[in-house]
Amino acid sequence: MGALLQDPEAPLGRLRQGEPPSSKADRHEFHFTRAVYSGYGFGYSRRGSWAVDYPKADRQFLMGVRRLLSHLDLSGDENAIPLDDPELRRFPFLYAVEVGRMSLSESEVEGLRSYLRAGGFLVVDDFWGSDQWDQFEGEIRRVLPGCRIVDLPPDHPLLSAFYDVKELLQVPNIGNAMRGETSERDGYTPLLRGIFDDEGRLMVVINANTDLGDAWEWAERPEYPLKYSTFAYQMGVNFIVYGMSH
Amino acid sequence: MTPDFESVFELLFKYRPFVFEKGRFVVGSAWPAAAILLPGVVAAIWSYARARGAPRRADRVVLAVARTAALAVVALCLCRPGLVLQTAVLQQGFVGVLLDDSRSMRIADGGKTRSEFASEAFGKDGALLKSLAGRFKLRLFRFAESTDRLESAADLTFEGGETHLPRALERARQELSAVPLSGLVLVTDGADNGRSGEINDVILGLKARSIPVFTVGLGRERFDKDVELVRVDLPSAVLKGTSVTAEVRVAQRGLGGSKVQLLVEDSGRVVQTQEIRLPADGESGAARVHLTATEAGPRAFRFRIAAQPGEPIVQNNQQDVIVQVADRREKVLYLEGEPRFELKFARRAVEEDENLQLVCLQRTSQNKFLRLDVDDAEELAGGFPKTREELFRYRGIVLGSVEASFFTADQLRMIAEFVSQRGGGLLALGGRHSFAEGGYGQTPLADVLPVVLEEKGAEPFFAELKVEPTPFGMTHGVTQLAATEEESASLWKKLPPVSTLNPVRRTRPGAVTLLLGRGDALTAPQVVLAHQRYGAGKSLAFTAHDSWLWQMHAEIPLEDMTHENFWRQLLRWLVGGVPGQVGVSVSPQRTAPGTSVTVMTTVSDDTYLHVNDAQVVAQVTDPKGAVRDLPLEWTVGKDGEYRGTFSAREKGSHAVRVEARRAGKSLGSDEIQVEVADQDTEYFGAEMRRPLLERIAEETGGRFYTPDTAHRLAGDLTYSGGGATVQEEKPLWDMPFLYLAIVGLLSSEWAYRKRRGLA
Q1: Smallest Cα distance from A125 to chain B, Å
Q2: For chain A, which residues lie within 8 Å of any Cβ of chain B, measuring from their own Cβ?
C-alpha cells in the first residue's frame, strides 16, 4: 500500500471539473492524469484511495519525465479527474492507484468504459494480493464485460517503447523497502497484465503486486533503493511513450 | 440573310444576292443616257419654273427632283448595266459532295432525321442531286472517322462514331485536285471531333486554292429540351476503398432549374444516386458526386441522368469513365518531433486501412526515436532518410511538430524535391514546431507549402477553432465526410472545437482552402486545411494540432467514425495519383474499334530521375486473350518518356501492362485499360453547329444553306467562279426594281401635284 503524503500543507492538485484548458499552463500536450474514483480507504487529505501518494508522486514523476522525455510538452502539474467527468476524455493517458479498493458507481463505470472504448489508455498500479486483485477484476469487468486479462510477454513493445526493460521488479512501498521487504499481503509476484480491445489494441496496463507510485514519490530519498525508483521511472516513461503512440 | 429576304431580293433585282456578290458591275455606253437625261432635266426644270398656279418654291424643287430622278433611272437603263460573272460551263466542272455518315445524323430534331434529308436530297431521285448533276460532274464522298468515295447515297449507313470535318474536306480536295473543281458541298450537322484548330489549316488551304465550300447544315441549332453530361472529372487511378469526388459538368436546354437524379453505376450496379439541380438556360453547371471505389481492378463508372420528357437524344445523358482501382499498400512516412496524441490517433484511424501503411518515426528524446510499422529492422534505423532512394520509396510524407533545424539543408531540399520531382504528397501538421513556429519560413519548404508562413510571433499563439468546410471543401474527397453534402455538413457542425498553435491566415496563390476555423480569439478565419499542386506533386497544410479531439471529445459518440474517416481520406488523398517509377497512360482510353491507341510511359530510376536508356515493352492483351508485345521507344523530345501505338480492333477491354528494365533489372511496371466500343461522342454537342459551317462557307467563298434553302445551292454553285468557267454578262436594265422605281417616282410626282392643287 502506498504511503500517504507527508506534507498536509502542500497545495492541492487542480481538479478539472468540466473546465477545458483555459490558461497557457494548461495548453500542454501531456497531462499526467490521475483517476478519481469511488472506493474504500483513504488517500491524501482523506480524499479516498485514489489519492494515495497524491500529489507528490505525480509531481516528482513529472519532474523526472521532463528530464527523460526532453521533447515531450508536458504539464508539470498533477491532474486528477473523476471517472464520470465528461472532460476525462480530453486526457488520453490515465493513471489509477489502489485499484484493489475500487468500488465504482454506475456513472464511473460508464465514464471509464466510454473513455477506454474511445481510445483512452489506463495504467493501474499499487494493489496487492488476491483479494485486491479480485476486487479490481470485478470492477474492471463491470467496465469491460467479457474482457480478457492477459499477461504481457517480456517482448511486448510496451517494455521497449523507450527503455528496454528486461526484468520485472517488485517495487515496494518506502516502509517495506527500508525493511528490506518487497511484497504486501499475498502478492509475492509482480504482475504486468493487459486488457486489449477487439482490434488488439492495449487499453489497460495492470501493475499488480507492485507500487511504482511510491518509487516515484520517494525517489529523492537516499534510503529508498535506487534500483526500484529507476525501474519505476523506466516503466512510467515507457507507459507514456507507448500510450501516446499506440 | 434570311431566306425571305433573299426571295424578295431576287424578285426585285432579278438575281440572288450571291450573284451580285460574285459578279462585277459594268455599264455600256453613257451617250444615249446623256442625250436623254440632259434635255430632260432642262425641260423639267424649265416647265416647273413656269408652271401655272403660283406654286411655292419648295413645291417646284420637289417636283423637279422627282421628275429628274425618274429620268435618271431611265437613263441608267439606257446605259445597259450588267453583271459580269464567271459561270460554270455545263458538265465541265466537278463538284465534290461530302455527306456526313456519322451517328448524329440519326437524330430526329427537325420533323425527320437528319439522315433522311441527306438520303432523300442526294438519293437516286433526289432534287438536289439532280439539280447539281444537271450542271456538274459529281463525286460523292461519305465521311465520319474516315472519308471514302461513295457510289450512291443509298450506301450511307450513318454508323460513324466520330466526325472529322477537316480530314473530310482535305481528303476530298486532294482527290479532286487533278480536275477542274467548281466547289465542294458539305452536308453535315457540323459536329467535329477533330483536334482543335485543325479546321483552320484546312480552311486556309481551300482558300489558297480558291475552292469554295457550300455547306448544308442539318438539324436544329437549339434543342427545345436536352440534358447533356458534358464531362466527368475523376482521378484515373485510386486506391481501393478510396472515397473520391467526381466533378460532373452538366448542360441543359429548356430544363433550367429542374431537379434530376444523377446515377453512378459501377459495372452496371448503381453505387450512388444524387439529386442535382440543373443550371439555368445558357449556362453549364457542375455537380460533385462522392463515391467510393470498393473493388480492385479497372472499373468502368457510368454517370447517367435519366431521360427527360421531350428530349430528342438521350445518348448524351451519360458519360463513362475508367478508373484503375489499385489494391496495394501505399507507404506514408510520418515524422513526429515529439510524443503527441495526434500521432497515436492518426495511427489508430488508419490502422484498419489495408491500403495505407503509416510508417512512423517519433522523436521521444534527443537523438532517440521510436519507429512504428516499419517493414524491417533496417527501415529508418538511421533516423529520417538521408538519401533520395530512401526517402522517395514513400508516396507521402507527414511532418508533425518538428522544427526545421532538425533537418539538414540537404534533407529539406530533398523533401521539396520529393514533392516537385518525385510527385509525392507532403502533409504538414500544426504544432509547437510547425510552420513559421518551426522556423520553416526561410527554408525550401516555405514555397512547397500551400499556406503563407507569417513572421513567428514573440508570444506563443493559441486559438480554439470551430472548423467548417469551405464551399469547395463541402464536396472534396478529403473533407466530405458522409455520402451526401448535407450529411457531411451536419457532421462538421457537430464536431467539437479543436485548437491551433500556428496562426495561418493566408494561402499561396493557386492553393485551395478546404477547411476554415473560426473562434473568439481570432480576428480573421484560420486556414485549417489547404492544398496546392507543387511541381509534379502536391502539398497540404493541416494547422490544427489536436484533431484527436474529434475522436476523444465527450460529445463524440463511441460509434462515430468521423475522425477515422477524415484521416483515412486525408492520407489516401495525399498518396492518390502519386506516380511510381513507371507510369503509363493511353490516348484515347475509350475509343471505337479500329482506332489507333498511343501508349505513353514515363520511366524513372529509384531516385526518380528520368531514364532514357530503358527497355520498355507494353504487353497488350485483347478481349479474346491474344497477347502481343509492343516495344515503346524513347520520344527524344522529353526525358524519360516512351511511346508506342497499337490498333485496337476488337470490341471490349484491352489490358496494357508496361514494364521497364534497365541493365537487366526491372525498374517497375504499370497497367491500364483501354475500352473499345461504339462511341456516343457524336451525340454530344449534337445541335447543328451553324457558326462553324457559316465560317467554312464564308471564308472559302461559298455559302451556307439549311434544308429549306438548299434548293438554291446548285444555282449559286454555277457562279462560284471555280473550275471550268466562261465569262458571262447578266443584263440588269430589266430588273423589276428599275421599273418600279420609274413608276414610283412618276406616281409620286403626280400625287404630289394633285395634293398641292397643281395638276
Answers
A1: 22
A2: 24, 27, 29-30, 68-73, 86-90, 92, 114, 117-120, 161-162, 199, 201, 240-241, 243-246
